[in-house]
Amino acid sequence: MSARPASSTPLASAPTTRRITAVKTPTSRAIATLAIAGALTAGAVTLPATAVADDTASAPFLMPYYTELDLTGDHQVTADDLDVIASAFGTTSTDAGWAAVSKVDLDIDGVITVADLAAASQRIIYDDGPFELVEASVIEMQAAMNAGVTTSVEITQAYIDRIAAYDRVAQGEGQRALNSIVTVGSAPALAAAAAADAVRAESGLTSMLLGIPVALKDNYNTLDMPTTAGCGCWDGNQTTTDAFMVEGLRADGAVILAKASMDEFAVNLSSTFSAGQAAGSTLDVSSPYNTARNAGGSSGGTGASIAANFAALGFGTDTGGSIRIPSNYNQLVGVRPTVGLASRDGIVPLALSQDTGGPMARSVVDAAVALDAVVGIDDGDPVTARQSGLVPASYTSGLSSTALEGTKIGYVPAMIGSNASTVRLFNAAIADLRAQGAEVVEVATPEGWAAILAEGSGSGPEFNHDLQIYIDAYLNPAVTTRSLAQISESPNIIPNRGITASNPNNATYVSRSRVTPEAYEAWAGPEGTHTLQLARGKQIVTAMMEAEGLDALVYPTGNPYGTIGTNMRLSPNTGLPAVTVPMGQAVKGEPIPGGGANLEFLGRDFSEGALLGFAFDYEQATGHRTSPTLYPALD
Q1: Is 217 a known active-site residue?
Q2: Sign of the four-CA dihedral 127, 131, 132, 138
Q3: Residue 24 bears catalytic tag
């Protein structure tokens, strides 16, 4: 996504400084059959001018598997490309026109034949077979919509129906409700879906997000649904604008379907919220794999809803683990981007020194597609200027089943922990990485490592200051709780966080509201202790990777339904990007059988493309994600 106009109020305190077979879309039977039938009567002729790519065409929006055989300049394989291939039947490697079609000689026999056309047809995003919503990928949705098997309106309505049937309804005796969604924007979502269907009818597939329903953590501003940050005291916070990242999603044709529940103001790594509840009442978000367990947090609603197939894609935020922990608990892929890749403007903050938004998805491909839409330089968040020249045309371009081949991956033994399931799964993951061609080595920690992991979250010293920036810029004027101190006095919050707590002086909102400007500056100012430590952390870990020749570090994101020491601190305490991907589940005889654990890849600044490639290769080789059985397809 390119830069957009500046927002009204900048973040004043922001730092400046495929294995392919696993992608299940089959051959487009109708198009392939028709194209081959027509091709049998065609001879080798001069290629039309449309076979020459236009240098001014838009950037590719999908992985090379689906784009590299393009002959017509639109960065995808379509029926038009099959027509070009058919017109080139009989062309050989000694003919003058060979250079223009050589890349579609897929059987490498030196002549363009019907076999090449049939193989190329596999690359079309089109499937006229039955469409199953549960566990459908973005590619599968697009293929079905392109074939006219379904529409965005039908997919959106199906997700609305799933939310209504499952989210607040316990699925059997002894089960808890998920409580993963705060608001469903049915009318605007269906209108957006209808508009996407109209675009497709007129112009075809214009974006991989065209007509794809998305759930957002309820701290992203949306002009058509309130933004509560999980708090009942902000139930009326209807903003007049979208967050920068939401603007990017809408610009690419995504359907903003729902706001996902979250831990109130993103404070804890659980997800308890008061939004939409009577004063003094709260709800907890459950994991769809084990509703007796919490979904993690603070982006727990996003984690539970995407795992339960309530939307195609989700977005969370991460200050100290809030994308990666719910991904770990709910068998999802989560991306915590480099601080500065995605603007935080229009997102309710917790600590701007470490806050970042990112996708949560059921596959790496889906996460990469989602990330493409939300990057960009934004004057409203000056730190985004750092990304200039460092963002690829598409984060799908590096997704390959050979991405790990020839890489060097490091791990720190102390980060594995002692949980029996996690140790077993991590050791298996190391073997899998090696089987994919990576050299995996144990690395010693450098001087300063302990201080990196020991550095605290900015959520204490920064919350009062940073929240006020949001309040002044975006909070609906009708909302009366207009400071953290006023929030702490509201009856519409989690009771033990405000003045009604048994020890109010130590209550979260009370104590944090009393952080003075001087204390904030000493922590998060240009020469603040936290600011300097984060800079040192990035320098130390980057230097460690350079010295060891590492392409990435790996470690377990967490245990089944639990964390591991300070593992979650490495990415936020360095600002470096991390991608987490399922590495398996606990088995009978281990603690919490069925509970998932994830493998996390961490890399250098703005190395999301490489990390997604590594995660994709690992994911395609292992296929660890499962679908929660409590939430099957509706009848």
Answers
A1: yes
A2: positive
A3: no
Among residues 28, 261, 298, 513, the one annotated as catalytic is: 298
The 10s digit of each residue's pLDDT in 504-547 is 999 999 999 999 999 999 999 999 999 999 999 999 999 999 99
Q: 3-state DSSP call for residue 444? A: coil
pTM for this predicted structure: 0.91
Three-state DSSP class for 454?
A: helix
CA torsion angle 139 144 148 151 (round to 10): -80
Locate 596 and state its tokens. Answer: 């998932």
**CA-to-CA distance for 367 and 243, rounded, in angstroms?**
19
Strands 181-184 and 356-361: unpaired
For the segment 364-379, the average pLDDT, to the nearest whole number, is 97
Q: How many CB atoms lie within 10 A of CB 437?
A: 13
Mean pLDDT of 151-161: 98
Active-site option among 207, 217, 299, 343: 217
pLDDT, tens digit (0-9, with 9 covering 90-100), for 614-635: 999 999 999 999 999 999 999 8
429 in Cβ contact with 554 (< 8 Å): yes
Of 7, 261, 274, 322, which residue is the catalytic one? 322
Q: Is 93 a catalytic residue?
A: no
pLDDT for position 45: 30
Give all strands (DSSP E) within 173-325, no chain letters. 181-184, 213-217, 255-260, 272-273, 283-284, 286-287, 290-294, 313-318
